[in-house]
Design goal:
238 residues, globular, six-stranded antiparallel beta sheet
């Protein structure tokens, strides 16, 4: 199986080592360096439906890159499209659910598929979540990325419900149960929850229960991109 290793600091590269015949899949434009024995191609992995699901619901690219050691042993370097940290996950007995844009690369026998959550409206009123996530299956290694620094948060039934801002969630154990809703845990009603969300400055949150880990990032990617766009427009106008 291809081997993943993070190299460099503070924003690492993903170094991939492949022997002849092995291949990996990675997000479009992730390739930084590739050695002569490796081939790079585009692939509609998972079929046309899954490819369009990734593209139009999660922001992932329609085509994923496939890197194969066609002519012998070789290495390549990969990096995410936005600045930040990465983490390698071992896939097998433990599977993970990924938020939008978290996928970087996976070994050949790991699948990452888009899944639509039920009940979109419930997400706004504190019930079961309604959005699209990516879910892993198979066995091997999976690399994820997040804006800023990554950290693991342990969720335990002993601690009850753990609430995390949606924009800071990168991935979590698929065994965890979760709801998407407003940050308020009190019975304020629809209008009260909306008002509390507005006045507190918090948007949607994920509420986790069970035993497992959630991987979070220190920066909210959407907020960062909004700030960056505003700063660039301000400089342009000046």
């Amino acid at each position: 199986m291809a081997k993943f290793e993070l190299v460099g600091s503070p924003e690492p590269f993903l170094l991939v080592d492949l022997v002849q015949g092995e291949k990996i899949f990675c997000e479009s434009d992730a390739m930084v360096m590739i050695e002569q024995n490796l081939e790079l191609a585009g692939n509609l992995r998972g079929g046309l439906f899954q490819s369009f699901m990734r593209r139009f619901t999660t922001g992932e690219s329609l085509f994923q890159q496939e890197i194969k050691a066609s002519f012998g042993h070789g290495q390549c370097l990969l990096s995410p499209n936005i600045d930040g940290d990465m983490q390698i996950l071992n896939i097998g007995p433990q599977q993970y659910t990924l938020s939008d844009g978290a996928f970087v690369a996976a070994t050949e026998h790991v699948n990452v598929k888009a899944k639509i959550q039920a009940n979109l409206g419930g997400g706004f009123f504190g019930d079961t979540g309604g959005f699209v996530v990516m879910e892993s299956s198979g066995q091997g290694q999976l690399c994820i990325s997040g804006c800023g620094t990554l950290m693991e948060v342990d969720v335990s039934t002993q601690n009850g419900e753990t609430t995390i801002d949606n924009g800071h969630v990168v991935a979590w154990d698929s065994s965890l149960s979760y709801n998407i809703g407003m940050p308020s845990s009190q019975n304020r009603g629809i209008v009260g929850n909306l008002l509390n969300s507005f006045t507190s400055g918090e948007g949607m949150v994920l509420k986790f229960r069970g035993n497992g880990k959630v991987i979070i990032c220190s920066r909210n990617r959407k907020s960062y991109l909004t700030w960056l766009s505003s700063a660039l427009n301000l400089n342009r106008n000046n």
